[in-house]
Amino acid sequence: MLTIDPKSTPTRDLHQFLLGAVAPRPIAFASTIDENGVANIAPYSFFNAFSSNPPIVVFSSNRRVSDNTTKDTLYNIQTNKEVVINVVNYSIVRQMAVASIQFDKAVSEFSKSGLTPLASELIEPPRIKESPVQMECRVTEIITLGDQGGAGHLIVCHVLRMHIDENVVDNGRINPHKIDLVGRMGRSYYTRASGDAIFTLFQPVTKISIGFDSLPASVRNSHVLTGNDLGTLAGLEALPTEAEINSASKDKRVQELMAECGDDKVALQTRLHHYAKAMIKSGQTAKAAGILMLAV
Ligand SMILES: Cc1cc2nc3c(=O)[nH]c(=O)nc-3n(C[C@H](O)[C@H](O)[C@H](O)COP(=O)(O)O)c2cc1C
Fold it and tell me: What is the pTM of this model?
């Protein structure tokens, strides 16, 4: 393992280690307005939602590592405590990149990026029309984390109103494939959260599961089953009953494997583990557990 001591690591390197490790990060496309009415937009990936009641999202505007200067978004928010957090999806990612350029404060990134300002309902800064979700926010707190290059300012935003494009909603919920969000990773890497990048993982959390430590040692120490396979088995509510184990022993493929392996218990265990692994992959976890119990 590479061991990093932040105290003896240059900020530029530490920054990239943090960005590479804490990833992918959602992107807040923040719109603010200055005292002359110039609208500013800029992306911020030190961002997340932290509370639903009250609805709070937080992002961080950092001092530049290169010259320790602060950013226009922070200045505008310090002035009027208002911001719209617009989310970034794949269709606006290139325009978002243009908005991240260090234009002069008097220049609006709306005109530079070609994105469209849309009047907000409760606050002065406009929303970004092309963004599929726009959150009008009042800033309740700005927490300064330091005074050197790289130091963040946590901007705590109370969401006053959300606007959601109906085209990304199915049955009252945002469909991840339709919203097609983009996440920031380290260096210039991004991720697109749709298609194969999305998977579902169901784990009931109120019903207590058996846990990894209840699995037989032969299963826990399997050379075939992965940590994810064992995690799936550990999420079962109960170990298989005698009846379930008995039923597993009558499975056609299990009978074939038993016949093929004869007295070779090690070979049988390995092949049953491979068979159970395929079952887990196809979602038949309880059946897989029954098969595994045949070779403990
Ligand atoms: C995808 C992306 C994410 C970014 N995230 C942050 C961030 O979390 N914090 C930050 O200070 N700058 C971040 N930046 C850099 C700012 O967007 C950039 O410094 C911008 O010029 C600031 O604009 P402003 O001065 O108008 O606020 C990010 C840039 C990109 C492209």
Answer: 0.93
